[in-house]
Amino acid sequence: MRPVDVIVQGVLVGGLYTLFATGLSLIFGVMRLVNLAHGDLIVLGAYMGIVTTQALGLSPFASLLVVVPAMAALGYALQRLLLNRTLGDDPLPPLLVTFGLSIVIQNALLEGFTADDRKLAIGSLATRSLALPGGIAVGWFPLIVLACAIAVIAGLQALLYRTAWGAALRATSDDPVTVRLMGVDQRHMYAMAMAVALAVCGVAGVLLACWTNVDPGAGPQRLLYGFEAVIIGGLGSLWGTLAGGLILGIAQAVGAAIDPAFQILAGHLAFLLVLLIAPRGLLPRMAA
Amino acid sequence: MSAPLLETRGLVAQYGDTGALFGVDLEAREAEIVALVGANGAGKTTLLRAVCGLLPVAPDQVRFDGAAVGGAPAHRLVALGMAMVPEGRRLFPSLSIEENLTLGGWSGRRGHWTLARVYELFPVLRERRTARPTTLSGGQQQMVAIGRALMANPRLLLCDEISLGLAPVVIRDVYAALGAIAAQGTTLLIVEQDVALAQRVASRLYCLRKGRVALSGASAALGRDDIRLAYFGM
To answer: Which of A276, B30, B163, B212 can pair with B171 through a Cys bridge, CB separation 3.0 to 4.6 Å?
Structure first.
């Protein structure tokens, strides 16, 4: 493959990685919570999409109308009933609880859906492509995923920086005690942030199942890609997360072009390289 | 005489290592300015935090407008009409000045204070409204903290050490603003290190020592020596 083609394909898969990473980035940015169940929640979103398309006869894209609100509701309840109780000065309880949650989700999916891998059918969209000048073919579906990723990041950015609700969320992140003196219930804000994060997980999950096969154990690898994208881009920066996702995608594509066995490793090496050069990520949130 | 707007009865609370209260009785009436003085660690900040819902206390120990509100969550007390200018100002660094002010009105209480009125009170903030709080001078930051609390249209405004670290001329401006705020019928409970200033501004004064009320009374009626004795206990 030619270099330009490699980069283009990397950018496209980077869109998917960005969607994996967005929720992690938001949650870490707002409440310094590292959600180890994030990848499994994406896979849960994928299975929700699979169930919805089968039970209601919807197309995968229409299933988002069900999956996204359901995941958002789950996120609110999860934060309000469970994760809010783990937040405090000690970073260990949230790690332990979300790690446990990860195992619970994986095993529940295994019980409910067996270990067989599943996929969402998107018909001819899977094979249709757009011919770019220079003989490069770009798949329509990956292009839609990339557009979704950019739209999600831009939408969240607008939500955080252009609305009163976003200002309240940033203030909660700055100082969760003082924000209560403004009449803001910080537990509610955290739960709303988790609702938004899991709504994005729902989108990521459904698109993942359209892209490739998923099985109940597919979560941890998505968590890893998401993490790497967040760290590469810089913690707490949404545009950084997009950049991180794209860089990870490109690194993997370049690795695969050199040797197909080198694909995953190349992504990890790019991640380590960024940590070495810029430990705070490429676009760290400006120091307050 | 009407019931006090704020009343604490036998208030017991603990904050940090030094700030503890051992049964404090205090009241503030409608449109009154009450000052709280005392040495470091006497429990002044603890008292404000206990009143505004940041510390766990028994319901009966804090009454606001006749209702037992002790231990109610802070965000609910804001909706009832209690706002605080916290010690050290505690502005939100990732929000602009205007966002900081607007967030103060989150509870949606309507009343005299709007963004425009706050800018009238502190015109310099209008010029700096897109700036970040860290780029402002100490006095300007204090104005933001006061304006932010006013945006909640409080019936009771708690002010913790608002003169701390400010130049005398700035302190004069800030206290002039407090006069304008009180003129709107807002009750003020202020913690102030400077006893003479507290005496001048407030109609009544409480002196705390080691978590107890050592002295209280009308500001004008209290002599310097009485206060010094209550302040230091010697």
So the answer is: B163
For B92, the closest of A174, A180, A185 (CB atoms) is A174
In a domain, B142, yes or no: yes
Does B52 fall in a domain? yes
Least Cα separation, residue A74 to chain B (angstroms): 25
Classify residue B227: in a domain, yes or no. Answer: yes
Contacts of A178 in chain B (CB under 8 A): 86, 90, 92
Q: Kindly state the DSSP code that residue B134 receives in the 8-state scheme.
A: G
* Whole-angstrom distance, CA of residue A241 vs CA of residue A233: 5
Enclosing domain of residue B31? 6-232
Check CB contact under 8 Å for B83 and A181: yes
Q: Read off the CATH number of the domain in which B39 is found.
A: 3.40.50.300
Nearest CA in chain B to A288: B93
Give the gap in angstroms from C-alpha B225 to the nearest C-alpha of chain A: 37
- Around Cβ A1, how many Cβ atoms within 10 Å? 12
Residue A287 lies in a domain: no
Residue in B closest to A170 by C-alpha = B94
For residue A96, give its domain range.
3-122+135-277
* Domain assignment of residue B1, yes or no: no
CATH number of the domain bearing residue A31: 1.10.3470
pLDDT at A166: 95
Of the partner residues B92, B100, B152, the one whose CB lies closest to the CB of residue A183: B152
Please give the mean pLDDT across all residues of chain A: 94
* pTM for this prediction: 0.92
Q: In the numeric block, which tokens belong to residue A243?
A: 């950049």
* Span A51-67, pLDDT tens digits: 999 999 999 999 999 99
Give the number of domains in chain B: 1
B90/A175 CB distance under 8 A: yes
Instruction: Count the domains in chain A.
Output: 1
Query: pLDDT over 70 for what percent of chain B?
Result: 99
Q: Does B35 touch chain A (CB under 8 A)?
A: no
Instruction: Spell out the residues 6+ positions from residue A30 whose beta carbon is closer than 8 angstroms to its own.
Output: A169, A172, A173, A189, A190, A193
Mean pLDDT of A58-83: 97
* Chain A contact for B134 (CB, 8 A cutoff): yes
- Chain A residues close to B86, C-beta within 8 Å: 178, 181
Residue B12: count of CB within 10 angstroms of its CB? 16
CB-based contact B219:B199 (threshold 8 Å): yes
In tens, the pLDDT along B13-47 reads 988 877 789 999 999 999 999 999 998 888 999 99
